[in-house]
Specification:
This protein is α/β, with parallel strands linked by helices and 280 residues long. The protein contains eleven helices and ten strands. The strands form two sheets. An eight-stranded mixed sheet has the order 1-2-5-6-7-8-9-10. Strands 3-4 form a two-stranded parallel sheet. Helix 4 crosses helix 5 and helix 5 runs parallel beside helix 6.
Length: 280
């Protein structure tokens, strides 16, 4: 039997003119959001603030991470109009800061790096003042793909480590902990782009494991770190091993500071792009 969700992890349903307007704009542009596809608990709060995290390159993934609600299937060809539609939605929503993420596309030669770059270019063309954060897969560590990202000059490069080393292979069987660290390190050492990463807790890690991960992120120059509670999307996904209390989250914040991380968002419902603009 699954442990009951603590009250502090529950969010009320919000349905306002603002949330309906965001949904309408996304639907009219045929756009996906990670808010919907990954069942983010902060979706309605973000929609109420006239924002959303765009999910590009389709809504199915070539990897099967055991915590993620996005399906693993054969993906469709890229929509060549998507970068323009993303830029139009950013303009129509009146955003000052936007976050773009994607499914993993191991089927593409560059993992989709050039598609990220086109989205950045189109947004800058239509709304030059908008700050852009991208949350990318690991591109298999392909240096050429990472150089494409660097040359596109996003304001923030986010790549999530997702979990600690001890749990990593259980949660992300097709990923690699050290490869993810090397991606963050390469961006930091070869550009002036702000780097960011995040992880979930509640997958079987210890506080010492979390501290090790914070240290690893600090050592590869990561500027911003996020951490939140893992919530099981369905019975098919990894079970929650532990719901951290609010006091324990205070302890995780202390660990971050102890490891030299100055900019962080750590709380039960924090997700990668939650209140992203406020952290930069």
């Amino acid at each position: 039997m699954r442990e009951r969700l603590p009250e502090y992890l529950k969010r009320p349903i919000i349905d306002t003119d603002m949330t309906r307007n965001v949904r309408k704009i996304l639907k009219n542009r045929c756009l996906n959001t990670v808010c919907e596809n990954a069942r983010c608990p902060n979706k309605n709060e973000c929609y109420s603030a006239n924002t959303a995290t765009f999910l590009i390159m389709g809504n199915v993934c070539t990897r099967n991470c055991r915590y993620c609600n996005i399906s693993c299937e054969r993906p469709q060809p890229l929509d060549e109009e998507e970068p323009l539609h993303i830029a139009e939605a950013v303009r129509d929503l009146g955003l000052k800061y936007t976050v773009i993420t994607s499914v993993t596309r191991d089927d593409l030669p560059d993992g989709g790096a050039s598609h990220f770059a086109r989205c950045i270019q189109e947004i800058r063309r239509l709304t030059p003042g908008v700050k852009i954060e991208i949350l990318t897969p690991d591109f298999k560590g392909d240096i050429n793909a990472l150089d494409v990202i660097i040359n596109a000059k996003p304001d923030v490069f986010n790549h999530n480590i997702e979990t600690v080393r001890q749990v990593f292979k259980k949660a992300r069987p097709q990923g690699d902990y050290d490869l993810s660290l090397s991606v963050l390190k390469y961006i930091k050492e070869n550009s002036s782009i702000v780097t960011k990463s995040g992880l979930m807790v509640g997958l079987g890690e210890t506080m010492e494991d979390i501290k090790e991960t914070f240290t690893d992120l600090k050592n590869c120059g990561c500027n911003i770190v996020t951490a939140g509670q893992y919530i099981q999307p369905s019975k098919k996904h990894l079970e929650v091993s532990k719901y951290y209390t609010l006091e324990e989250f205070d302890g995780i914040k202390h660990l971050a500071r102890e490891c030299g991380i100055e900019d962080y968002a750590i709380a039960p419902l924090v997700r990668s792009s939650y209140k992203a603009a406020e952290l930069v």
